[in-house]
Hints:
Blueprint: E1 4-10, E2 13-20, E3 27-31, H1 45-48, E4 53-57, H2 76-90, E5 96-101, H3 103-112, E6 121-127, H4 132-142, H5 150-160, H6 162-167, H7 172-193, H8 204-224, E7 235-242, H9 255-258, E8 261-269, H10 272-275, H11 277-289
Parallel strand pairs: 3-4, 3-5, 5-6, 6-7, 7-8
Antiparallel strand pairs: 1-2, 2-4
Helix pairs in contact: 2-3, 4-8, 7-8
Amino acid sequence: xxxxxxxxxxxxxxxxxxxxxxxxxxxxxxxxxxxxxxxxxxxxxxxxxxxxxxxxxxxxxxxxxxxxxxxxxxxxxxxxxxxxxxxxxxxxxxxxxxxxxxxxxxxxxxxxxxxxxxxxxxxxxxxxxxxxxxxxxxxxxxxxxxxxxxxxxxxxxxxxxxxxxxxxxxxxxxxxxxxxxxxxxxxxxxxxxxxxxxxxxxxxxxxxxxxxxxxxxxxxxxxxxxxxxxxxxxxxxxxxxxxxxxxxxxxxxxxxxxxxxxxxxxxxxxxxxxxxxxxxxxxxxxxxxxxxxxxxxx
Length: 298
């Protein structure tokens, strides 16, 4: 199986993309998170490309894609524009399945819940990445629920998301990556995430430095002033049971925004694409097979 690479224009920048499999098969787009690039999906692609046309790309600021310097250039509508550019280049006008992990999942909710891409989506599998607007409503509904345990859930999630507050600081997160965090990153994945063969990547420093702008550009505006966002395609939420960063409580009220919701648990940590590729590929593939047609507009 030979991968095909393509540079794709999105506005005034270019994105690096890769496709595997038969173009006549149903299209499946995979979107990576932070601080990764499209290579985080390497172990799933051989499994999925047997029956899907698998498309991956480096999001802006990551991998071999262009890296805007301004924080405002990482806002969610622009990230959704990037996804549209990728699918329009590889499968113009065609429906497609979507699966995403971590920040890839967070940003993909923008496309899942708004035109024009929501009209072409066959299914969406979200792994460890809730919609920020949904999180904003969840925080409002739970923070004052002391007797029912809502307050404790919020505090538990905030403690798990300590890095979000760190990334709001200027200069410091970038300085940590510049000072050598990229060299330490494989050790973190080995010790805390069970990625036994984690290795150094020369792209890791830039992936970490520029990716923090995703948090600065979007976290506070969306969670403090959320908008009602509804999906019309079938949605599956994959929950790694040992996720140190995204708790299952964030999916408790998601059915409000999705209608029927499929929840799938994996015996895996946060970086499930690296530690449980067979299970993840199985969940994504099975859900996609169950939804071969675009649903009627809600």
